[in-house]
Specification:
The protein is mainly alpha-helical and about 250 residues long. The chain has 15 helices and no strands.
């Protein structure tokens, strides 16, 4: 379902016309305070300004007046995901699927929050990707799940190559692919992914930790230690590791 006022709101926000967007949203609410559209538009504007608490308030107002709008559930999943409210994300995703079983966001949300097993997560991400085959975030999430299930999976590399070709600097995927590369023992690739992450956001603590871990393998001793740990599934005694390092 296309909502004309909502589509216009998205255009205004994408063009950086936030003042006009807020004015139109509030005018809609003033003209008809019992209609969902104004609140939905205002919630979208709140997301753009990263005011997620206010976005949640306006989203709930929109749902109060109409529970049959798919866009409300799409925005709701996004908002409560950012707020870290797992239970509400699951509720909204389930309600959303009842209205539109082809919406990828709902399957991805359930994969992230509702199921625990990697196999179940992968299945949900597969479904999400089937309905949104160009979604880079879903490609990365699916690749990470598949890798945990089977470290020799060729599908993981195919998803990685497709995602990187589409956008080589998409941050969530750089994190996934850095972790996958490291776990494979491809430390050079892991170093390159983490280097890009730290260039994009140098103050990010997670990125810095991944960077330090990957770049520590430049040390021959640590390189051998990690290779043995990853592929031998056990630690060698320190004296044997020292001998290996000396013969490197």
């Amino acid at each position: 379902m296309k909502i004309a006022s909502f589509e216009r709101m998205k255009q205004l926000v994408e063009n950086g016309k936030y003042v006009d967007a807020e004015l139109e949203s509030r005018n809609m609410i003033t003209e008809n305070p019992s209609h969902f559209a104004g609140y939905l538009c205002l919630a979208y504007l709140n997301i753009a300004s990263e005011n997620f608490s206010e976005a949640a308030h306006n989203l709930e107002q929109a749902l109060l007046y109409n529970q049959n709008i798919v866009e409300c559930y799409q925005l709701g999943v996004m908002i409560y995901d950012r707020l870290g409210e797992k239970k509400r994300v699951i509720e909204l995703a389930r309600f959303g699927l009842a209205l539109d079983h082809e919406e990828a966001d709902f399957y991805a949300a359930l994969a992230k929050y509702e199921v625990d097993s990697i196999k179940d997560k992968a299945a949900l991400y597969e479904t999400a990707l089937a309905y949104a085959p160009k979604r880079l975030d879903i490609m990365g999430s699916l690749a990470f799940c598949l890798f945990q299930m089977d470290k020799t999976s060729k599908r993981v590399l195919a998803l990685q190559n497709t995602a990187l070709t589409a956008d080589p600097l998409f941050e969530p995927n750089l994190v996934y692919f850095a972790k996958i590369s490291y776990a494979r023992g491809d430390f050079e690739a892991a170093r390159e992914f983490t280097r890009k992450l730290c260039v994009i956001e140098p103050s990010n603590g997670e990125y810095q930790a991944l960077y330090n871990q990957a770049w520590a393998t430049k040390n021959p001793f640590w390189f051998l230690y990690e290779r043995v740990r990853l592929f031998g599934k056990q630690f060698l005694p320190c004296d044997e590791l020292f001998w290996l390092a000396c013969t490197y």
